[in-house]
Amino acid sequence: MFTHLHVHSDHSLFDGYQTIDEILNRVKELGQEAVAITEHGTMASIIEFHKKTLEQDIKPIIGCEFYFCEDKFIKDRAFTHHLILLAKNKTGYMNLKKMNKIAFNKDDGHFYFKPRIDSKELTEYSDGLICLSACLASIINTEDGEKWVQYFKNIFGDDFYLEVQPHPIDEQKEYNFKLLSYCARYKVKAVVTTDAHYSKKEDAVWHKKWIGLQKGEYYTTDTNYLWSEDELLNSNFLPQNITRELIRNTQEITNKVEIYDLAPAGNHFPTYPTNNACEKIKEICRGVWKDKVPRGHYKEYGDRFLYELSMLEKCGYTNYLLLTWDFLNWCKEKKILTGVGRGSVGGSVVAWLLGIHHVDPIKYNLLFERFCNPERVSAPDIDNDLQTSRRGEAIGYLIDKYGNVMKIRTYSYLGNKSAIKRAGQVLGIEPTIVNDITKQIEEIDDVINVRVKVNKEKLIDTAKHFYGRMGAFGSHASAVLITPDDTINYVPIEYQSVSDESLDGERIWTQVASGDFHDLENFGLMKLDVLGLNTLDVIDNTLKQIKDKVDIYNLDTNDEKVFKLYQKDNLLGCFQMDSSGMRKLAKDMKVNCFENIIALVALFRPGPLGSGLVDSYVNGKNGGRIIYLCKEIEEVLSPTYNVIVYQEQVMLLAQKLAGYTMGQADMLRKIIGRKEEDKIEKATQDFKEAVIKNGFSKEIAEYIGNQIKAAGRYIF
After folding, report:
1. Residue 478 to residue 410: CA distance in whole angstroms
2. Strand 506-513's sheet: what is its strand order?
3. 149 neighbors 107 (Cβ within 8 angstroms)
4. Which residue in 251, 243, 254, 62 sits closest to 165, CA to CA?
5. Residues in Cβ contact with 474 at an 8 Å cutoff, skipping those fewer than 6 apart
6. What Rg do the C-alpha atoms of the chain give, in angstroms?
7. What is the largest CA-CA distance in the chain?
8. Alpha-carbon distance 466 to 19, whole Å?
């Protein structure tokens, strides 16, 4: 059975064309049982690749095509070569990560145009690795090639293989025979690879366009795809007498590779220093109880507090809450202004009492189950906003306290407009024309209706072939990863240039954890969101100029003077409120209470504006006729005039009408907010059936079911 051992996805930026899904679909189609991933100088794709191969019942082989030089002090790009390293076990995987991290280090000379490793690293971290000599860019394809065959053989022994390829290039054919002569001379086995950058032969044309080469200066053939075994057996550029042996050797390598987890199982958060997290939380909250909890409501808040704490402990959230409290409390001590709070944590009374957010959940009917739900245990997630100018200090505190803190990589895929821009670039269309086109479209097919003198069909076709492919790596604007020990024990670490707003936008070369943050959370790792907000700097500067002390976390939310500013659309300079459209809506709404301001923020978005819901809300708010089909709907939707505005309203409707538990209601909320139509359809149908089963009419079930389904596109 043949196995592809030299494969690039689109994570080899603008070199590999195929996506991970395309690779695996092709491997399945060919009936192959394993496949390797070997990106150019990066391990950026390995987490997605590993997860998806196992889901498809394909054996994953984790590797990297490293840039190799004899000595890192050689500053000449001509002396940088390619080398394939594959991890055959967990030790090898760890050594891959270690060399990958070293290769990106600019300070010690390894990074020179490319992330490089040299002879020292290869010798030190060879355990658990299989080495392939790579393509024509191998160091073996030099005058000293024979010396390097002996060198690699000495390090890797029987885990070193020479790599021949079937490409119809005279140089490749000569090189293949040269490699095979070394096999006999030094008792080294050979394998066949295709250095696949796209999954099917017909994608060769799109690959060349994708990498921006119109004349094929580098990829001169259309053979860098995922070949079938039969194609290899019939290749004229491989010696027919040994092709089966070359194929068998790929299976030999596959058999050497173990299947292993990429990260240790379990939770890997740093630990807040306390013997009992629940008791520590109670101690902190007792200290603020009388200041925060309304008199006469101690039992109501106490019952909610104890219920939440038991659920938080059950879901394993208590340590995370203390870590977040500690961080925000340090900011408070250092007079670093932090946000009022946002996101699902706003539903937690415990988090409110801890000062993690400043919105009373009971007063505003916010649901705890959106944040913590024992029926859907997921990674805890709290958004923390603070002054941009002092974000660096706050991150410094985390580093001083925990040591292992770094930015998280982001992965940017080409959307409709960016695919059009890339297509226009490779088709040679003037950038000004392309930019004008993108301003007039939402979907790629919309180009056909734009009045412009270009070949629109060709532009559309090219853009569709580019859509959804990897376009760039970045750094998460707010999230940092905090690990209890060296981060490399859990995830690859690489460097990249990022903009640091705490340094006035200066670009810095910094380490990033190379994995999507959702995948890192699934590894049991702690992501902490620390977002710099310029508005908090404005507020801080303003407060310093006011003689009287103002507590921005305890403002009067029934100030008539504020409402008059909204009614007169006098909102210039007010955060999120000063656009002309927002000011007009505030005036039309006749804002006269704090709840109207909340709704204003929720409604002024494309979904509600384009669906007529804003008009319905404003009409109801200003005395228009409202018909509620039952008292349960009225109880939930009367504050928003029979319009579903908030996610909590979906959950409450599911509870009251369908008899769902809060956990089930939260699952419905999550499903309708996604773009998986089949799941949305099933969830809403199940909801309608549950409503009828719970004693309500079919009319009510259909009406509110359709409303909830539609709400998934816009609810706040």
Report:
1. 11
2. 383-387, 526-533, 470-482, 405-413, 506-513, 493-500
3. no
4. 243
5. 409, 410, 411, 412, 496, 498
6. 30
7. 93
8. 11
Q: Is-above-0.90 flag for pTM?
A: no
Cα gap 531→537, rounded to integer Å: 13
Token pair, residue 280, equals 């520590």
Weakest mean pLDDT among 253-257, 641-645, 708-712? 708-712
pLDDT, greater one: 224 or 574: 224
Q: Which phi and psi (to 5°) does residue 43 adopt?
A: -115, 30
Q: What is the 3-state secondary structure (H, E, C) of 446-490?
A: HHHHCCCCCCHHHHHHHHHHHCCCEEEEEEEEEEEEECCCCHHHC
Q: Which class for 403: exposed (0-12), middle (13-18), buried (19 or more C-beta within 10 A)?
A: middle
With beta carbons less than 8 A apart as the criterion, state whether 477 and 488 touch. Answer: no
Q: Report percent pLDDT > 90 for the chain.
A: 60
Q: From residue 395, how far is each of 50, 391, 576 by CA, in Å?
A: 31, 6, 26
Residues in the chain: 716
| pLDDT surpasses 90 at 213 | no
Say if residues 648 and 715 touch (Cβ distance below 8 Å): no
- The one-letter amino acid at 440: Q
* Contact between 190 and 164 (Cβ < 8 Å): yes
Report d(CA 416, CA 442) in Å as an integer. Answer: 7
Q: Quickly count helices (H) and strands (E) in the chain.
A: 30, 13
pLDDT value for 215: 47
Q: Which of 199-208, 429-438, 469-478, 565-574 has the lowest mean pLDDT?
A: 565-574
Q: Residue 535's closest CA among 688, 339, 347, 343? A: 339
pLDDT in tens, 567-608: 888 888 888 888 888 888 888 889 888 888 888 888 887 767
Helices (H), 590-697: 594-603, 606-611, 613-621, 631-637, 647-658, 662-672, 677-693
